[in-house]
């Protein structure tokens, strides 16, 4: 489940993604499909925390981690 942190100066999203292998692609897109963040970690991971000034309160986003995908509205 995606969650934003309301006290941040810029947008932040945290996702529990289950156990993921190194190199699994993480992509954050806005509602228009524009890529905000794309990354493939070098180590295994289970939680994703992304931050960007392009994450705006009230806007819709999709985060994809490997084959899983979640939609959320930044709050």
Task: Record keyword descriptors for this entry.
0% helix; mainly beta; four-stranded antiparallel sheet; single chain; 75 residues
Low-confidence runs (pLDDT<50, min 5 residues)? Answer: none
Indicate the mean pLDDT: 88
What distance lies between the first and last C-alpha atoms, to the nearest angstrom?
14 Å
Main sheet properties: 4 strands, antiparallel
Shape: globular
Proportion of residues in β-strands: over 45%
Placed side by side, the strands forming the largest sheet appear as: 4-3-6-7
Q: How does the helix and strand content classify structurally? A: mainly beta
**How many DSSP H or I helices?**
0
SSE ordering:
EEEEEEE
Radius of gyration: 12 Å
Helical proportion, percent range: under 10%
Q: Tell me how many strands there are.
A: 7
Describe this structure in words.
By secondary structure, the protein is mainly beta. The protein has strands at 2-4, 11-20, 26-30, 35-39, 45-52, 60-65, 68-73. The strands form 2 sheets. Strands 4-3-6-7 form a 4-stranded antiparallel sheet, with no helix packed on it. Strand 3 (26-30) and strand 4 (35-39) form a beta hairpin. The mean pLDDT is 88.
